[in-house]
Design brief:
It is built from two helices and six strands, in the order ββαββββα. The chain has 149 residues and is an alpha+beta fold. It has one domain.
């Protein structure tokens, strides 16, 4: 469940976490805070690790708006058929869904064919898709893979 104000830009270097936890976007990401879209803020590494990438940052991040509705955004891959990856998103507050719905991503076209109205949700979904596809196609060392089930 990434922070609902987190705009992921690029994957963290693998050394950012000695052993990354299971992350909502699949991989750890660097990015910017969009609490105030007119004044983007680049969080430090500790904030990225403890709040932005994990969500539920209301008590962990001093920038998190006290009156914000959403606490976190989560994604899951449902299926992949004929080059279309079907996802489901949930925007939460206090672990309760505020909004949810399907997204569809065309793998060959590398774009969403069924998207969301929020640029933040779309950007987070894109990061999730990139992580999902990378893990699917890149060989992983099973002993050191934090994403194995």
């Amino acid at each position: 469940m990434a922070c609902p104000f987190f705009f992921p830009i690029e994957r963290f270097a693998e050394k950012a976490w000695r052993k990354p936890p299971r992350l909502p976007l699949g991989d750890p990401y660097q990015g910017v805070c969009h609490v105030d879209p007119m004044r983007e803020w680049r969080p430090d590494e500790a904030t990225l690790r403890e709040a932005c990438n994990l969500g539920y940052a209301r008590k962990k991040c001093p920038r998190f708006p006290k009156d914000a509705d959403p606490d976190a955004v989560r994604f899951t891959a449902l299926s992949e058929t004929n080059g279309t990856l079907k996802l489901y998103y949930v925007i939460e507050k206090n672990y309760t869904p505020l909004e949810h719905g399907p997204l569809e991503y065309s793998v060959p076209e590398q774009r969403f064919v069924r998207s969301h109205s929020s640029a933040l949700v779309v950007k987070q979904a894109q990061a999730y898709v990139e992580s999902y596809l990378r893990r699917k196609f890149e060989p992983q060392d099973e002993a050191n893979n934090p994403h194995r089930r």
